[in-house]
Every structure is written in structure tokens, then in C-alpha cells.
Specification:
single chain, 163 residues, mainly alpha, 6 helices, elongated
Length: 163
């Protein structure tokens, strides 16, 4: 009797989930790194920032620097967790990206073009982390691995009984 070996359906959905998580991890890392640099520039009170009078959310430039530095450091740490597809990193990644959007909106008058760019990047990060199904991030079940499917890779190569 001949055993029929069928390859599992490797769906494009799984590849999209992996790709979007990697995209979000790399983008969150870059957003965090750029936010760290922006925070350092603001703490040093660099001349690149614009000062606007009568802004509702006016805050000291050094204060904004510390806010951006802290958010950037958290974003870099969470992005490393995203590369391991940890669920805690996914939740924190959405939260950190949301806080980056808020911080960049509130500091819009100091550095307008860059704030808009960071808001857009953070929006893409939130989108990428939210569209990935939860079960796509978990490890595949034991019977879905190549060792469970293909008898040629087993040391004995004996046919399996039908399921």
C-alpha cells in the first residue's frame, strides 16, 4: 500500500503576518532611534527647533527632549521583543507608537515636518501590529512541522499509519 504525502497548505496569510511583524519591529526600532536623537537635540537646545508663541501645549524644549528620549528608548526595547514575536511586545508596540504620535503632535510647532513624518511612521506601525492575527504569532503545532509531515526526514523512513 502506498502512502500519500501531502504538503501542508502554507498560506500567504502566515507569510504576511511574519512580514508585517518584522516590518513593525524594524520601523519601531527606527522611530525609537530617531526619537532618541531628537530628544538629545532638544535637551542640548539645538538651534534646529522653531519657537512658536502662544501655542496651547507650550512646554519647555528640554522637557520635550526628555519625553522623546524616554519614548525612543522604550520603542527600541519593544522592537527587539517584536522580533521574537512576543505578544507583550505587540501590545506595548501599539501603545508606544500611540504615545509617539501624541508626543509628536504636541511638539508639532517645534519641528513640524519631522513631527508629521514620525506621526505617519507610527501610524503604519500601529496598523502593521493590529492586522496580524494572534494565532499567526504563536508557534505552529507539532504536527504542522516538516518533521511531522515528511517521512523521508525520519531516521527510520517507515510509513506512518493513516490518521
Amino acid at each position: 500500500m502506498t502512502a500519500t504525502h501531502t504538503q501542508p497548505a502554507h498560506s500567504a496569510k502566515d507569510e504576511w503576518a511574519t512580514g508585517l511583524t518584522a516590518f513593525a519591529a524594524v520601523m519601531l526600532f527606527l522611530v525609537g532611534l530617531l526619537d532618541i536623537f531628537r530628544g538629545i537635540m532638544a535637551i542640548a537646545e539645538d538651534d534646529i527647533f522653531v519657537t512658536t508663541r502662544n501655542y496651547v501645549f507650550e512646554f519647555d524644549l528640554t522637557g520635550w527632549g526628555w519625553v522623546h528620549l524616554a519614548l525612543g528608548a522604550l520603542a527600541v526595547i519593544v522592537s527587539l521583543g517584536l522580533l521574537k514575536t512576543a505578544m507583550w511586545a505587540r501590545v506595548l508596540g501599539v501603545a508606544i507608537a500611540g504615545l509617539v504620535i501624541i508626543a509628536n503632535f504636541l511638539s508639532l510647532p517645534q519641528y513640524p515636518v519631522w513631527s508629521v513624518v514620525m506621526i505617519a511612521l507610527s501610524g503604519f506601525i500601529i496598523w502593521a501590529l493590529c492586522v496580524v492575527p494572534r494565532d499567526s504569532l504563536l508557534e505552529p503545532p507539532e504536527d504542522a512541522s516538516w518533521r511531522g509531515r515528511d517521512d523521508t526526514y525520519r531516521p527510520t523512513a517507515a510509513p506512518r499509519p493513516p490518521r
